Amino acid sequence: MTEEGNKIKILSIFGTRPEAIKMAPVIRELESRPDVESRVVVTAQHREMLDQVVDTFNIKPDYDLEVMRPGQDLFDVTVSVLKGLKGILEVERPDLILVQGDTTTTFTGALAAFYCQIPVGHIEAGLRTYQKYAPFPEEMNRVLTTRLADIHFAPTDRSRDALLKEGINPGNIFVTGNPVIDALYQALEQPFYLDPEISRAFRDNKRVILLTTHRRENLGAPLQDVYMALREVLFKHPDVAIIFPVHKNPAVRSEVKSVLHGVERVYLTEPLDYLPFINVMKRTYMVLTDSGGIQEEAPALGKPVLVLREVTERPEAAAFGTARLIGTDCRKVEDEVNRLLNDEGAYQEMANAVNPYGDGMAASRIIQAVCCYFGLGPAPADFSPEQ
């Protein structure tokens, strides 16, 4: 405990846009507690995309490592974050650090805390594909963070079960739901701006598909297959359009340019800020993505999700019927998209399925679990989606 009124000092560490989104409700909850002293470190592993989320949720970091550099790789990020955190942890000496998810910042933050013998709480713990390089490096970041963590905030029962199979003490696992749903509900209440070109896509077309792609394992031929499949879909469905915020990765942009540039009813945009993005998602007919977080957000909005991956660490959506894992084969992608466009029953079955990821109360459960860990209150009831 810290000396100041016996408050628990908690240091939250994050560095990317998805981390910031999911940590924002947790930080808001921490700051509302009189028994908690909250500190925030951003590594800025992704600078531009991080900053707009920090501004959206009015997060005021106490420390900014500013590690992002042109051409950086995993070695650079790992070393920079580890060195940057050393002095902060030695000065602050928090009672607990919180990390979220599966980024290099997450793993390195947990490792730095371990070196300083500070307990670690891992938000969104227990997601697994059991394939070392899929997704890369996220799968091993999660596994290694689990071994370093002391408290595990599993979003679902399936995630808890994965942790139990790995020998984690059940008394240190809390099923909380995912705070990404908290963030989504809070953000949808805020005003937003849509680019006129995007607004035109909704005005001129009856059904709009939201597409996002960025995974390393899909670069090259897999992305070409996806884009070619969608060209065929547009040819067969004149009432359909695609909004595609294109990732800044030059390899992704090269594939997009070669296949989709100039194609009618394909609206290519720069990456969207969080508020316009979720409001686009709210208005679309379906979502195609190889992202992780969107697999959680879209079901909360009643949007069917076709996942452009061979494996996923988020199988709950498929189990509950809100998502389908379809890979990147050209024919398979075309068939699955056409199925939802042509079969209203199949579409409604996915659109009305139960969201397995949260109810908007995950942050509250996480902080209650932290207090329980320090002997300051009872454990929260586990989150369970409606059956």
TrEMBL record:
<comment type="similarity">
    <text>Belongs to the UDP-N-acetylglucosamine 2-epimerase family.</text>
</comment>
<dbReference type="GO" id="GO:0008761">
    <property type="term" value="F:UDP-N-acetylglucosamine 2-epimerase activity"/>
</dbReference>
<feature type="domain" description="UDP-N-acetylglucosamine 2-epimerase">
    <location>
        <begin position="28"/>
        <end position="369"/>
    </location>
</feature>
<dbReference type="InterPro" id="IPR003331">
    <property type="entry name" value="UDP_GlcNAc_Epimerase_2_dom"/>
</dbReference>
<dbReference type="Pfam" id="PF02350">
    <property type="entry name" value="Epimerase_2"/>
</dbReference>
<keyword id="KW-0413">Isomerase</keyword>
<dbReference type="InterPro" id="IPR029767">
    <property type="entry name" value="WecB-like"/>
</dbReference>
<protein>
    <recommendedName>
        <fullName>UDP-N-acetylglucosamine 2-epimerase (non-hydrolyzing)</fullName>
        <ecNumber>5.1.3.14</ecNumber>
    </recommendedName>
</protein>
